[in-house]
């Protein structure tokens, strides 16, 4: 008897939708609480709390009520796409389109790029209303948005152009590696992604980031001297310091007080000194890539190599052929339960790293300005003061402010009691 891959995937998708909706309901209830958490009493003003509370609730209209509708539509669409075999239909349609414009769909790279082009157009169309609502309604209502519609569309256009420029060679390379990889396929794919990530880390700040933000050298002065002194004391190879101007798009702020800025940088250097950056890079090389690339890790590639030739797996999803990209997509769906567990574990690790970086900055003598900086960032950005512990544990890679302040203050309290 064949294993019901499709039915198992659909069942888990629906269960996760129900669970995550329950977490959203819990978080919305937490945001509506009328009082500050006890640790923040006297730390954050009532006026700031009410503004943050109103903003959080309003924003949750997008990520709760509006989000519920969006997620409900998404789960219905995804279920229909898989259950009614729309994915194989769209694969064939993309092949016909390639043939129509004079390309050879028998070439798997061309066929795959045609398929991805259709997926990109679809995702842009379906995501656009939610992005517009978030930017020009929610953010604007609370005084954060500074983007014009023209700038918004330009950013979207630049993002599409970058995808068009970088996507085809990356996809083509992956297909060739899978075709030629043989028994060492998983290792070849992992090495390719490793090299790609290193290249992107080099190229992004030089060529891509300046397309969206203005970078200017930090002028000489006391702040620069303090940062350079801190970096030198930790033997951090600091080469250049830049100020990123994000004010053309948003009024969400960063620290402005010099001591607070240095304290936050001490926290970030703590990540470097404690090797958090290296651990995170090795564990999740592609954390910030698009959804289609999230499966490209060594273990997942290893699993993919075990099932990529499974005729039953492809047939369960309606395919009578075994395209490489489709195999990756199907495999991603079949390991969704493991991915959720992995993401939860990575969030736990990330939160631990944040506590350790805070403790590192404190050991350097920055406890007071770090505490003040965290509070100010929370206030100025109207971040949620009350969070549901279940929702936080599942979704947040950074601990809530209450937990971070308690961790910063706890050793001092213990010393006083001694």
TrEMBL record:
Domain named Peptidase M48: residues: 254-411
Entry EC number(s): 3.4.24.84
CDD domains: M48A_Zmpste24p_like
Gene Ontology biological process terms in this record: CAAX-box protein processing
Residues of the active site: 268, 358
Domain of life the protein comes from: Eukaryota
Protein's name in the database: CAAX prenyl protease
UniProt KW keywords: Endoplasmic reticulum, Hydrolase, Membrane, Metal-binding, Metalloprotease, Protease, Transmembrane, Transmembrane helix, Zinc
PANTHER family hit by this protein: CAAX PRENYL PROTEASE 1
Cellular component GO terms, alphabetical: endoplasmic reticulum membrane
Transmembrane segments: 6-23, 61-84, 159-179, 185-207
The protein's required cofactors: Zn(2+)
Membrane topology according to the record: Multi-pass membrane protein
Lineage start: Eukaryota, Viridiplantae, Streptophyta, Embryophyta, Tracheophyta
């Amino acid at each position: 008897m064949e294993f019901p891959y499709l039915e198992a995937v659909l069942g888990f998708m629906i269960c996760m939708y129900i669970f995550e909706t329950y977490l959203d309901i819990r978080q919305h209830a937490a945001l509506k609480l009328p009082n500050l958490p006890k640790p923040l009493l006297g730390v954050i003003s009532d006026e700031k709390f009410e503004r943050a509370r109103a903003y959080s609730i309003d924003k949750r209209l997008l990520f709760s009520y509006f989000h519920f509708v969006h997620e409900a539509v998404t789960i219905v669409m995804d279920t229909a796409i898989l259950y009614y075999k729309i994915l194989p239909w769209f694969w064939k349609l993309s092949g016909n389109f390639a043939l129509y414009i004079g390309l050879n769909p028998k070439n798997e790279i061309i066929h795959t790029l045609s398929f991805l082009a259709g997926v990109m157009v679809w995702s842009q169309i379906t995501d656009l209303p939610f992005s517009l609502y978030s930017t020009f309604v929610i953010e604007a209502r609370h005084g954060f948005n500074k983007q014009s519609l023209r700038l918004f569309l330009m950013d979207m256009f630049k993002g599409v152009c970058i995808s068009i420029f970088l996507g085809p060679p990356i996809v083509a390379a992956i297909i060739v590696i899978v075709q030629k990889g043989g028994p060492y396929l998983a290792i070849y794919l992992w090495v390719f992604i490793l090299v790609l990530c290193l290249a992107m880390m080099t190229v992004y700040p030089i060529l891509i980031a300046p397309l969206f933000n203005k970078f200017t050298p930090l002028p000489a002065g006391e702040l620069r001297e303090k940062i350079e002194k801190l970096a030198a004391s930790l033997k951090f190879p600091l080469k250049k310091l830049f100020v990123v101007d994000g004010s053309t798009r948003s009024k969400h702020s960063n620290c402005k007080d010099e001591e607070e800025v240095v304290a936050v940088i001490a926290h970030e250097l703590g990540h470097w000194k404690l090797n958090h950056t290296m651990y995170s890079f090795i564990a999740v090389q592609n954390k910030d890539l698009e959804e289609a690339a999230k499966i490209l890790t060594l273990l997942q590639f290893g699993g993919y190599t075990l099932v990529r030739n499974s005729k039953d797996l492809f047939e369960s999803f309606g395919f009578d052929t075994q395209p490489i990209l489709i195999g990756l997509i199907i495999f991603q769906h079949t390991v969704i339960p493991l991915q959720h567990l992995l993401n939860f574990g990575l969030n736990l690790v990330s939160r631990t790293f944040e506590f350790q970086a805070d403790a590192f900055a404190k050991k350097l003598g920055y406890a007071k300005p770090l505490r003040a900086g965290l509070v100010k960032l929370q206030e100025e950005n109207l971040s949620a003061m009350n969070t549901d512990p279940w929702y936080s544990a599942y979704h947040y890679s950074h601990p809530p402010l209450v937990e971070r302040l308690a961790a910063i203050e706890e050793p001092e309290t213990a010393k006083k009691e001694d």
